[in-house]
Amino acid sequence: MKTMLTSTVLTHLLAAASALAATATATSVATNGGSATATAAAFGRGTANAYAGATNGGVAIADSVAWGHGWGTADSNAIALADRGLAVSQSRAIGWGSRFGGARAVSDSVAATIGGIAISRSDAVARGRWGGWADSQSSSTATSFYGTAISDAGAVSDGAFGGRAESIADSLSDSEGGVATSHVRSISGATFYGSAKSDGVGVSVSGFGRRSTADVRAVSQAHHFGRSVTRLSAVEVRR
């Protein structure tokens, strides 16, 4: 009887440990005088992946952090690729679920350049409390060909007391010999069985010697069985 009880307790402990297992993977590849650095950190129910590749004297830096707390999950991916240039990719995902609330945060960041500068940042934060649910998805992409591209995306959602909040942020910057900048923020909050959804998209494209900028901020709030939806997009192309 004692042996069976011990075995049962160990089984439950192992199951709980596997459910909260964090996974982090970092890969860096450098050739022909390139420099590549990849770092990944995961906590709780988090999965973090970082990949950096550099060649022909290029520098690539990828940093990924995922933190899934309580009932929340988080997935973070950062990719940086540089050929004779500088590529920096930063991704952060935080999923915070408590008191039976659920949260899911997904963040993807990609920076790639040939002879230029590409900087990409992506943040996704989701918080579900007291039976509330929150979803956050953030995607940032910066690409350049002998130019400068900066992309920044952030999604924040907060669901409480049975409310549901969803935030989606997409940012894209592409430059060919110019400067392209895109900033996107998507924020949603819902309480007392309200439903809020926020969706923001920013696209910035520049040609040789040109400069383009796209700034988007989408905010949605719902309370007491209310429903709120916000969708914003900004596109600027200069060739």
Structure explained in plain terms:
The protein has one helix at residues 2-19; strands at residues 23-31, 35-44, 46-55, 59-70, 72-83, 86-98, 102-114, 117-129, 133-145, 148-160, 164-176, 179-191, 195-206, 211-223, 227-238. With 239 residues, it is mainly beta. An eight-stranded parallel β-sheet has the order 1-3-5-7-9-11-13-15, with no helix packed on it. It has a seven-stranded parallel β-sheet with strand order 2-4-6-8-10-12-14, with no helix packed on it. The chain is built from one helix and 15 strands, in the order αβββββββββββββββ. It is flat, with a radius of gyration of 20 Å. Residues 1-19 have low confidence and may be disordered.
List the helices and strands and how they pair.
Elements (H helix, E strand, L loop, with lengths): L1 H18 L3 E9 L3 E10 L1 E10 L3 E12 L1 E12 L2 E13 L3 E13 L2 E13 L3 E13 L2 E13 L3 E13 L2 E13 L3 E12 L4 E13 L3 E12 L1
Parallel strand pairs: 1-3, 2-4, 3-5, 4-6, 5-7, 6-8, 7-9, 8-10, 9-11, 10-12, 11-13, 12-14, 13-15
